[in-house]
């Protein structure tokens, strides 16, 4: 095998976990039973040992295309050649009840001509750390390792090398074949995989679910298709049992090929909270916002001392210990492959602003905050009032030491400012006025120490010279007016020094603070580029904003999906797809559409 470009993938999922499906018909990433569970297919991280599930025409498959069935997360991969045309449908039906199994359904049919096909299913349990046995019975197979997987087929199966199961078959126009893979309990066999239900029943139920869900979207603006796809991508990254949103469903995909920044993103960052709530509420998905707020509420309740950590497990667990999977070679040799994320133990002051902004937005557009939640938020705010002057690792989670990052102080200000708004609007107790005093101290300190008068711009750190794309949040969180002279000067500097056309780098490492970790990022941060669009919109530069947004749409993959970063030649880099990017896309599109409508 070989590695597909990251962007040559689609995603399918069942609101518990997700799989990547390549344009070559290979599923090269799937974890079970949840997003952060151990992988069973991970050939995207090691094309020899990682495990895969391939279904494609034998030999030269010709040209391939991918699209989603309209308004769904059901993926259609088409193979076109002189000999014929074949189509594969891939999807994961939603579990029916707490104890239902996770199923992956693959159906291939020929629409023209006559084509031979090959199927190979070769799981590699627990990130390819544990072996398994295989048993094959006619059109069924069971893989038994630390857990069990069952495979059902319409055609005969045979055991292959390396613990795999294979099938070779030929289909003519109008003929089809279905494979269903599912997790099994002890004592179950391949006959338990599909419950005797036909492919068409699974397809219809899954199609109805996604179309019913997206019909709740209230956005009907200029970029409906892009917003709808982003909403569907976000929904597939929600862990239904808790309402948590994963940063991405993948781990280990590199920020540059061959580099060391290969992180595990299968967890929930508090930083995403406010952006998620605003984006979901702004396009009509109050239920998802409510569920995510419920997850956030539980985190605030458990951390009773007021100290929050940057990320949590999707089930709320607090320890996300980081280790290295040395036996995996990494995507195109990009190692180390990291499991877990040590950033959970960092100090990141900006997350307090995200949490309080989320609470403010939910109180305004969702439901009134209750007294018990407010009491927990008060503890968090009191901790922040005592500690906002501390250095931290910042929004980019640097691993070279802490610093006085301007964006961290900015979001600390947001936390105290939003708390004041909530208290005033609801008449909730807010102490002795200390929050207001500390809020004003932060504001004045940013204006004094975060502003570089010689450069004429706000900077990454106090007293520094380097810029930082996180400064784009300043007008978005209403710290400065979008046409404030200091801000406009900063925006112009960011466009000159950090932006390459519409692509925005996080910072310029040649000028950045000594805490900038390791080698420079090779890709531009997708979400920062959408922040730039929103800043231009708020500054009234609507034509410039519209062109920038349209250009950003051109960097999506063929399905409208974005990775964390965009490389120099437009390639996708980092974990894929990334929730924050799609949240920022929705926010930018909604704001610009509204501004254009009132022009």
Task: Explain this structure.
The chain has 599 residues and is of the alpha+beta class. The chain folds into 2 domains: 9-195, Distorted Sandwich (Beta-galactosidase, Chain A, domain 5), CATH 2.70.98.40; 224-597, Glycosyltransferase. The chain is built from 14 helices and 28 strands. The strands form 7 sheets. It has a 15-stranded antiparallel β-sheet that branches. It has a 3-stranded antiparallel β-sheet with strand order 26-27-28. It has a two-stranded antiparallel ribbon with strand order 16-17. A hairpin with a 4-residue loop joins strand 22 (451-452) and strand 23. Helix 5 (286-302) crosses helix 6 (350-365) and helix 12 runs antiparallel to helix 13 (542-553). The chain is globular, with a radius of gyration of 25 Å. The model is unreliable at 511-520 (pLDDT under 50).
Question: Which structural class fits the helix and strand makeup?
Answer: alpha+beta
Summarize the biggest pleated sheet.
15 strands, antiparallel
> What's the gyration radius in Å?
25 Å
* N/C terminus separation: 53 Å
- Strand composition percent: 15-25%
Q: What's the domain count?
A: 2
Count of individual helical segments: 14
Count of DSSP strands: 28
Q: Which topology of the largest domain does CATH recognise?
A: Glycosyltransferase
Overall pLDDT score: 94
Keywords: Hydrolase
Domain GH15-like: 224-589
Protein name: Glycoside hydrolase family 15 protein
GO molecular function: hydrolase activity, hydrolyzing O-glycosyl compounds
């Amino acid at each position: 095998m070989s590695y597909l470009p990251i962007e040559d993938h689609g995603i399918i999922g069942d609101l518990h976990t997700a799989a990547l499906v390549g344009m070559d018909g290979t599923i090269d990433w799937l974890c079970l039973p949840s997003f952060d569970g151990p992988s069973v297919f991970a050939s995207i991280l090691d094309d020899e040992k990682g495990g895969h599930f391939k279904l494609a025409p034998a030999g030269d498959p010709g040209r391939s295309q991918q699209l989603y069935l309209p308004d769904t997360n059901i993926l259609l991969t088409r193979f076109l050649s002189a000999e014929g045309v074949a189509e594969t449908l891939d999807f994961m039906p939603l579990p029916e009840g707490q104890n239902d199994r996770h199923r992956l359904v693959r159906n291939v049919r020929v629409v023209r001509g006559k084509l031979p096909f090959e199927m190979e299913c070769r799981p590699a349990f627990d990130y390819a750390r544990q072996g398994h046995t295989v048993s094959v019975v006619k059109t069924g197979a069971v893989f038994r390792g630390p857990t069990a997987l069952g495979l059902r087929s319409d055609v005969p199966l045979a055991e292959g090398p390396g613990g795999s199961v294979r099938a070779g078959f030929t289909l003519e126009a109008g003929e089809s074949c279905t494979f269903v893979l599912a997790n099994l309990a002890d004592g179950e066999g391949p006959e338990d995989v599909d419950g005797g239900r036909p492919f068409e029943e699974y397809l219809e139920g899954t199609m109805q679910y996604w179309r019913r869900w997206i019909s709740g979207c209230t956005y009907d603006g200029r970029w409906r298709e892009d917003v709808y796809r982003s909403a569907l991508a976000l929904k597939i990254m929600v862990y239904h049992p808790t309402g948590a949103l994963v940063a991405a469903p993948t781990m280990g995909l590199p920020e540059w090929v061959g580099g060391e920044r290969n992180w595990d993103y299968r967890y929930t960052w508090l930083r995403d909270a406010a952006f998620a709530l605003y984006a979901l509420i702004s396009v009509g998905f109050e239920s998802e916002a409510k569920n995510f707020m419920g997850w956030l509420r539980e985190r605030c309740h458990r951390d009773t001392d007021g100290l929050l950590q940057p990320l949590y497990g999707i089930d709320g667990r607090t320890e996300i210990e980081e280790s290295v999977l040395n036996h995996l070679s990494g995507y195109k040799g990009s190692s180390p492959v990291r499991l877990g994320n040590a950033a959970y133990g960092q100090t990141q002051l900006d997350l307090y602003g995200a949490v309080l902004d989320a609470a403010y937005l939910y109180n305004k557009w969702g439901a009134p905050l209750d007294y018990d939640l407010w009491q927990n938020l008060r503890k968090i705010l009191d901790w922040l009032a005592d500690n906002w002057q501390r250095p931290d690792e910042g929004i980019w989670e640097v691993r070279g030491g802490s610093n006085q990052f301007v964006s961290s102080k900015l979001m600390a200000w947001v936390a105290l400012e939003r708390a004041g708004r909530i208290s005033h609007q609801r008449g909730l107790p807010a102490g002795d006025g200390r929050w207001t005093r500390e809020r004003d101290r932060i504001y004045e300190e940013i204006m004094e120490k975060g502003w570089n008068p010689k450069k004429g711009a706000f900077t990454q750190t106090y007293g520094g010279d380097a810029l930082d794309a996180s400064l784009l949040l300043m007008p978005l969180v209403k710290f400065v007016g979008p046409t404030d002279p200091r801000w406009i000067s900063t925006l112009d500097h960011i466009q000159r020094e950090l932006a390459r056309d519409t692509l925005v780098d996080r910072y310029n490492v040649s000028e950045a603070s000594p805490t900038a970790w390791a080698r420079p990022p090779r890709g531009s941060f997708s979400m920062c580029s959408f922040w730039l669009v929103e800043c231009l919109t708020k500054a009234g530069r609507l034509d410039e904003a519209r062109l920038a947004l349209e250009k950003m749409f051109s960097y999506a993959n063929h399905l409208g999906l974005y990775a964390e970063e965009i490389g120099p030649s437009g390639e996708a880099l980092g974990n894929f797809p990334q929730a924050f990017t799609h949240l920022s896309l929705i926010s930018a599109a909604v704001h610009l559409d509204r501004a254009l409508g009132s022009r």
